[in-house]
Protein 1
Amino acid sequence: MTKKQKKVLYRIIAASVLLVVLHFLPVSGMLAFALYLIPYFVIGYDILRKAFLGIAHGQVFDENFLMAVATVGAMALGVYEELSGGEGEFVEGVAVMLFYQIGELFQAVAVGKSRRNITALMDIRPDYANIENENGELEQVDPDDVEIGTVIVVQPGEKVPIDGVIISGSSTLNTAALTGESVPREAAEGDEIISGCVNLTGLLKIRTTKEFGESTVSKILDLVENSSMKKSRSENFISKFAKVYTPAVCISALVLAVLPPIVLMVFGRPANFPTWIIRALTFLVISCPCALVISIPLSFFGGIGGASASGILVKGSNYLEAMAQTKYVVFDKTGTLTRGVFEVTKLCPSAALLEEHHGNTEEARRALLEAAAYAESYSGHPISKSLKEAYARTIAEDAALAMQEERKEAIQTGQVLQPGRVTDAQEIGGHGVKALVDGKEVCVGNAKLMKSLGLEYEEACDVGTVVFVAVDGAYAGHIIISDVIKDGAKEAILGLKAAGVKKTVMLTGDNKTVAESVAKTLGLDEVKAELLPADKVEAVEALLAAKGAKENLAFVGDGINDAPVLSRADIGIAMGALGSDAAIEAADVVLMDDNPAKIAVAMKIARKCLRIVYENIVFALAVKAICLILGAVGLANMWLAIFADVGVMVLAVLNAIRCLKVPKN
Ligand code: ADP
Ligand code: MG
């Protein structure tokens, strides 16, 4: 509990004790009224103040106003009874205020607790980075001040503050806060490392590759902090509803207090104003909308929190709402369903290139790979990374043979490609790359690229993804690479079917043979291959046009050549670890561990959350409607009104807290 909440608790205790004492004191009349005013002000002074300030600022109709009118009215009625010779009741006015405060306190504690839970889950913000100074001592600096390329030291037990590459040391990393995955991951020299992981065992030296503000940690925190700004339809509905509802209730109460007595008077019967005023006040207390106003945002907040604990970042409650109605899931292939880590399986230099190397196949193959790797220098495509890595490995083997220790170290830190050899590199989406390497134009890409450049090329010598290479306008050979389907991709598709998804589709820029074999292995309903980024948008547009109004389409991609589709779909889901920054920005949902099986989990969380929201809406409105009717005809007293308000709120909040728990199956 915070200090403020403790203070409210003490006031609740004080007012309750005073009420009990007064109950047993033999006081009556105006003295009783004066004495009851003490607990009334102890418990209600802040509500009265807020109501008064609200009126002064022209924002009349809120919960504080409802409570103030109801309780002041009840007290005033007591005084009226006393003055007209009867016996006044003052307990009710105080009790309404007391229970309202109990409900508010309960709600504040519950909300605070779930908020803390979520921030604890997201406790990934690093406070400092360690840098070694000239004397070899570690110095703690603000991560914001660390420049790209600086070497930082991460000791066991510390969080990795900035993204980078390990240059020395090896360790196990706990990535639970990022991915929800509890199995630690091994990391060694040369590995890329993302910020937000906790270093468990060894000392790591990391050369940073990004600034703090661009690092994974900062990106994620931004996402989570901004997620509450995007409101779901249910939330918007409730805030609009409250705006209309509260004045409507106040006016109805006024009518209820005045109209029936006047009508009775007209017909010559006793008007009985006090009875009708009590009914009107009861009506006011019953109709307080706090159960909905509080429990609905809390439900969504819980759902988003539960999702982030399992490595699924949802950027707003509107997306959670949309996830619940997903009927079509469209996938990208490379990096989404496949691991995006290609193995070079065959290097096939052209006859011309072979001749250039005097028939030395090894040398020609090396030249082919070298040209491709250099041309791909500036690309972030999975294919590009694989080619560069394959080239780095051959160089490393050479260096090992020649015992060039220095060179070996450079290779392990990823500096194989000599800068300056590549000028003017250009990436052509869905085709490949084009660059000047040593002044020669090298084109690397698929058959489409070769065709668009009007180059002759050989048929591929094997099955797999084919990368054609052309140097100075002449075909120089091709490289066959193959990718592996992600573990769990098949289960992901089955899981989606089980969760009620009607159709799964794969869109890819890769060739038909590869695409069809992947689709068949995974059991996808439809596959479209050899698509350019623009074709992917078109394919998604067609699916969007064909689906029903209440059905949503999700696109899952890694953002490489598919960022436009991510933002075009009803819900864009991006791979967070492998995906590009553009993807994480364009997407509505980010899967931190790149596991497509999390999509079905996200759908389950969304559905559970929405079910709870509807339960609360129906339950609260039904109880209130019944009590309102009973109140209007005089069958409900203040005590029932208090249950309708505070009781319903407590139950709704308890129900909403269930959203935090992620459904297992
Ligand atoms: P996917 O839809 O499978 O994710 P992309 O749209 O990213 O594939 O790429 C489609 C095709 O374009 C690839 O299969 C490859 O043939 C070619 N391509 C794209 N970028 C590159 C690159 N940097 N180097 C070589 N080929 C590339
Ligand atoms: Mg892709």
Protein 2
Amino acid sequence: MKMSTQRVVLVTGGSKGIGKAISAAFAANGDTVIINYHTSFDEANKVKLELLPGNTSVSLERADVSDYLQVKRMVADILEKYGKIDVVVNNAGIVRDGFLMLMSERDWNDVIAINLNGVFNCSKAVSESMISQRNGIIINIASLSGITGLSGQANYSAAKGGVIAFTKALSKELAPFNIRVNAVAPGVIETEIVDSLNERVKNNFLNAIPMKRFGKPDEVASVVKFLASPDASISREKLFALREDSIDV
Ligand code: NAP
């Protein structure tokens, strides 16, 4: 096992949409990027080939984030190859929209399993090595739906609301180990998830957006990249200095 000198970044669901843009943003930064996917090997491999010409290392990891054993194996494999994981972006997600009366138990369970349990599984699996490193960044992709709640998305709103609460709790738990945990809650972003919505629903969303346009995956990726950068943090030294100053006052 060789300890990577570059930052090692795992992006779940990095094969498409927002995850693809996030993978590209970290690769452009010179980080080692691991693209996790579940079923879309061809897309994931295409992203890898697109990013490889840059001065960076990109690899693929297949795992269903809703399955803890698969996630544990994926994390062990990355640690074996690179010696550490610096950043995890919990991005993998699905929608199975429908009014509650018509929502199947399966549509409820799948959305909770991937969007919420997936975040638990990946965060738990990386937390041990991040705690030992005394260093790490976890960024969870939530959604506006998890803040406001949206009609026809009881499952998705519940999962994303859960991700936001989970993020708050975990940020408190892991802060003493120098691990930052944040969530990003995008509005409607132009990806396959949005392509799958019918025109009436898309128009309703557009009408509610003051800019009258959907967001772009790159716009979410910029926020994620910032949250993973030193600009979004304060060094331990500066923090201790600030604490000492405030004690003097
Ligand atoms: P997308 O284009 O449909 O991509 C979803 C990604 O998640 C794919 O790479 C997919 O890979 C992966 N994935 C799905 N199930 C998985 C599983 N069980 N294990 C591992 N990977 C899995 O979706 P997106 O719009 O980019 O959404 C990305 C994230 O942003 C999601 O968490 C979504 O809820 C959130 N979000 C999206 C929007 C929006 O408007 N698009 C708004 C707010 C939040 P496979 O195909 O290989 O399964």
